[in-house]
Amino acid sequence: MGRAVAFEDNAFEDNLGAALDWKGRPVRCRECDHQSINAMGLCAKGRACIRDRRARRVETFLRANPELADQYLDHPYFEVRAGAARHATVFRLAPLLDDPEPEVRAMATLRLPAERIRDMIHDEDIDVRIAAASRLTGADLVPAIRDEAYMVRITAVRRMPVEMLPLVRHDPDPEVRAWVARRIDVRALPDMAFDPDPLVRREVAGRLPPDPLRLLVEDSDMRVRFTVAERLAEEDLFALLDDEEPAIRELARTRIEAVPELAGRLADHTGNDGAAVVAFPAPHDPGKET
Questions:
Q1: Number of domains in the chain
Q2: Per-residue pLDDT reduced to its tens digit, 209-256
C-alpha cells in the first residue's frame, strides 16, 4: 500500500496542467473502468491516470499498475501504447514493431530480444534506429555504419567490437571519429594521428604509446600538443621547450626538471631565439629595481 499512500498524500494535480484525455476532454473518474484501484489509491486524477493525455501521468499509472499494461497495447493514443510497451509482458510486444508511431516502435525495440529486432536498424525513424543500435551487436551493427544520422553511428561505434572500428575511422562526423579513437586498438591509432579535426587528434594523443606519440609533437593545435606534453617520455620533451605556447613550454620544462638525469641538460638547450632555456628563475638584480 506504499504507492497508494503516495497518491493519497498528493491528491492535488501536478504542474502539468488540467487533467484532459487524449481528445482534450476533461478526465472524470466516474467514467473510468479503474474505480476500484482508484479507491485503493493506486491512481489519481491529475497525477497517475491512464486516461490522461500527459505521458508522465500515464507512466505513473503504469508504474503503479504494471499488470494492467498488456490491455493497453492497442490503445488508440500512442502515448498510452508507448507507456504500456515499457511495462507489458515482453511476449506481447512483437506486433508493436509495426506500430505507426516511432515512439512505440522504439520502446518495443528496446525490450524485445536482439534476434527479433535486427530489421529495426533499417527503420525510417532515427530514434528507432538508435534504439536498435543500442541493442544489436557484432555484424548486425554494420548497417548503422552507413546511417545518415550521426547519432545512430555513434551509438553503434560505442557498442561494436573493437575489430570493426577501423571501418568507421574515416566517418564524416568528427564526434563519431572521436569515439573511434577512444575505443580502437592502440595498434591502429597512429593512422588517426593526422585526422583533420583537432579534438579527434587529442583523443588519439591521449592513448598513443610513447613512441608514436612523437608524431604529434608539432601538431598545429595547442590542445593536442598539451596532451602530448602531459604524456610524452621526459627524454623526448626537449622538442616542446621551443613550443609557441608558454603553458606547453612550462609543462615540458617542469617534467624534465623532475628527472635528475635530464635536468642538467636544460641549461644547454637553445630556444628559438638562440638563447639558452633557463631551468630556474634568473638571479635577482638589485640594479633593475626602480
A1: 1
A2: 999 999 999 999 999 999 999 999 999 999 999 999 999 999 999 999
* Among 225, 223, 278, CA closest to 256: 278
Cα separation, 141 vs 120, in Å, equals 11
- CATH number for the domain spanning 69: value is 1.25.10.10
For residue 238, count other CB atoms closer than 10 A to its CB: 17
Could you tell me the three cell numbers for 217? 609533437
pTM above 0.85, yes or no: no
C-alpha torsion 9→11→16→18, nearest 10: -170
Cell of 233: 617520455
| β-sheet bridge partners, residue 52 | 21
Contact 159, 134 (CB under 8 A): yes
CA distance 253 to 103: 56
**Which residue range(s) make up the domain with 53?**
1-88
CA distance to 7, 104, 108, per residue, from 81 (Å): 23, 6, 10
